[in-house]
Amino acid sequence: MSYPEVAAFDLDYTVWPCFCDTHLNPPFKPMPSKNGEVRTLIDSYGYELSFYKDVPRILEDLKTHDVKIISASRTWAPEIARELLRAFKVEYKGEIVPLITLFDSLQWGEKSKVNHIRLGIQEIFGAKADIRDYKSCLFDDESRNRDVEKYGVKYVYVRDPESGTTWDLYQKYLNGN
Ligand SMILES: [Mg+2]
């Protein structure tokens, strides 16, 4: 099993099952679980959104192995995505924390995914850090983003919009690279 140094995640249909710029209308109401986690939010129209259930476990496992985590999203509504990442709360090392705190760098905008990852690596490791010097991967549901492989980033295809990024897919990636 081989861990990367950097793991990047798309958000829509990779971390949660919706397009946050077209499907959702803030404000969001949290639906806390008994342990204080917030795995479900309800928007102002009553639309319920939960992140894919294995995502917090995957992020915790990455962080336990010193992997830096980047979000790489081209959403038109980064302020909504950011609000979701703040409002979702997950158990991490025995504490309840906002999902956003598990990310080391948040990258947004109409640029290519490789540029998201490049900027994330520079934010984390310094302005001179070169994407090719770090073992990295991208979890993403749009196969056109496979072009990150030209820059040495392993592309992990999140194929199924029902289940999103699963522990099983993650294990296959760790065991296959
Ligand atoms: Mg996506």
UniProtKB/TrEMBL annotation:
Pfam families: Acid_PPase. Transmembrane segments: none annotated. One of its GO terms (molecular function) is protein tyrosine phosphatase activity, metal-dependent. InterPro entries: HAD-like_sf, HAD_sf, HAD_SF_ppase_IIIC, MDP_1_eu_arc. PANTHER family: MAGNESIUM-DEPENDENT PHOSPHATASE 1 (PTHR17901:SF14), MAGNESIUM-DEPENDENT PHOSPHATASE 1 MDP1 (PTHR17901). NCBIfam families: HAD-SF-IIIC, MDP-1. This is LADA_0F09076g1_1. It comes from Lachancea dasiensis.
